[in-house]
């Protein structure tokens, strides 16, 4: 018997209990501690579904390293401590473990099923520099995702592949008979939407959009296949619509306005067919934003107002605040300062009411930083550069450092406002900070903003830092 055969026949080592984490729980029951984790998550704008079972698995050592969302929550709960202090293994020591185990496992029927691409995501740069939505803390979720998008319209589903989002469909899917969709496929679809949003927050849209069309086709193939239960069907319609909006946003942020408009319209139609006011409000919200960027401010106002009519019964003050900001952006495009001021006042008053359980999951991005950033855009459109720069600076300072794309966006807004406001040296300094972030962020929107700033700064090359910014910007690789 060879040494490899000997090693492969050995049972895996049992997990080592996490005694440090158990000690931090103290006298609280697992359920009480899980509730504390969920409260801490809400305090920092995270959403985690922590329960007593999850706590038990951490303490048993089954979860060697939490995903980034849980990491931020735990570090918020226990300031000054590191993951190692909490009893977890370093992320680098865990990364890729499951992929290696899969390579060593004997080939079976399950190897032909759709697979999850482990902790390293198997993605090209820039995604392999971070694994922002690790899944090794929940093996049962991997099983759900392996079954994702297995049914539907044969070749369409077989072609769907989205490795950076942890989902892939194998070539044998077309050979399998169509069956009705269950909760596992719906859950996988919802997970794909979350992953797309998180990757966009961290890296921008350009590198993601090309990969996003396949799962969207698969999602609508699932709709065609039908579901086993009414509740699953409602979730499936909502998930497909949210995915259409997410893909539309990737098109929007990468400058593909016609594609974005089509995806938003598809989401709106899905929402109306399903009678889903939350999805309808979201689709109108993004349609308003797109109309503003595409130079159709009156449409932006109408779409934002339609969104508010649909969203009012939902009971989310934060959603109504965001929609008021969308309306303000349209009024700014029409140079209507009165309408703009009224919408901004509503947005701020509604935001001050705080979060609630009625807030949609997709609004996790809407915190104080986004409020400041959107207000900066409004004042910039109105030509009030000083006020715009003040709000953009606040937005960049307030943004969670994990979300590089938004920091780059707010700082690019700041650079442009400073340049147009006659402060070229400060604008150049802000522009250089953005250029440093573009090694990990891909966004045509941000590159377009920087190009405009560079044009404004050209006559001021002698000002401190301006020539350095212009030279570095000129050497920036252009998006294909």
UniProtKB/TrEMBL annotation:
Domain of life per record: Bacteria
SUPFAM superfamilies hit by this protein: TPR-like (SSF48452)
Stretches with biased composition (Low complexity): 1-10
Chain intervals for the UniProt region annotation (Disordered): 1-20
InterPro entries membership: TPR-like_helical_dom_sf
UniProt protein name: C1 regulatory protein
Organism: Streptomyces davaonensis (strain DSM 101723 / JCM 4913 / KCC S-0913 / 768)
């Amino acid at each position: 018997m060879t040494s490899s055969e000997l090693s492969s026949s050995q049972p895996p080592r049992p997990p080592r209990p996490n005694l440090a984490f158990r000690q931090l729980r103290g006298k609280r029951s697992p359920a009480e501690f899980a509730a504390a984790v969920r409260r801490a998550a809400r305090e920092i704008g995270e959403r985690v579904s922590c329960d007593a079972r999850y706590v038990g698995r951490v303490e048993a050592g089954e979860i060697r390293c939490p995903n980034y969302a849980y990491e931020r929550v735990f570090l918020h709960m226990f300031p000054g401590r590191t993951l190692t202090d909490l009893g977890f293994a370093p992320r680098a020591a865990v990364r890729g473990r499951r992929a290696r185990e899969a390579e060593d496992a004997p080939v079976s029927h399950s190897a032909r099923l759709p697979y999850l691409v482990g902790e390293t995501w198997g993605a090209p740069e820039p995604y392999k520099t971070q694994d922002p939505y690790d899944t090794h803390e929940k093996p049962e979720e991997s099983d759900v995702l392996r079954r994702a998008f297995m049914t539907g319209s044969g070749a369409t589903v077989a072609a769907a592949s989205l490795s950076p989002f942890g989902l892939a469909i194998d070539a044998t899917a077309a050979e399998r008979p169509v069956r009705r969709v269950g909760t596992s496929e719906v859950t996988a679809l919802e997970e794909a939407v979350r992953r797309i949003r998180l990757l966009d927050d961290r890296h921008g849209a350009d590198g993601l959009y090309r990969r996003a069309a396949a799962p969207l086709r698969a999602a609508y193939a699932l709709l065609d296949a039908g579901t086993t239960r009414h509740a699953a069907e409602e979730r499936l319609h909502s998930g497909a619509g949210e995915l259409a909006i997410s893909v539309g946003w990737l098109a929007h942020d990468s400058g593909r306005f016609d594609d974005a408009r089509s995806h938003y319209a598809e989401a709106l139609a899905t929402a109306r067919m399903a009678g889903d006011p939350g999805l309808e409000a979201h689709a109108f919200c993004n349609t308003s934003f797109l109309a503003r960027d595409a130079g159709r401010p009156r449409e932006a106002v109408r779409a934002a107002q339609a969104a508010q009519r649909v969203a009012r019964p939902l009971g989310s003050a934060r959603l109504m605040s965001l929609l008021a900001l969308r309306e303000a952006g349209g009024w700014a495009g029409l140079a209507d300062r009165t309408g703009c001021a009224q919408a901004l006042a509503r947005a701020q008053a509604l935001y001050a009411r705080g979060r609630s359980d009625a807030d949609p999951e997709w609004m996790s991005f809407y915190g104080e930083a986004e409020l400041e950033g959107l207000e900066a855009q409004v004042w910039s459109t109105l030509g009030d550069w000083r006020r715009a720069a003040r709000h953009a600076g606040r937005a960049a300072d307030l943004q969670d450092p994990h979300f590089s794309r938004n920091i780059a966006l707010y700082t690019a807004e700041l650079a442009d406002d400073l340049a147009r406001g006659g402060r070229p040296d400060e604008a150049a300094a802000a522009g250089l900070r953005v250029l440093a972030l573009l090694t990990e962020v891909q966004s045509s929107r941000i590159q377009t903003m920087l190009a405009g700033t560079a044009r404004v700064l050209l006559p001021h090359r002698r000002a401190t830092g301006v020539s350095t910014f212009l030279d570095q910007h000129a050497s920036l690789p252009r998006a294909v």
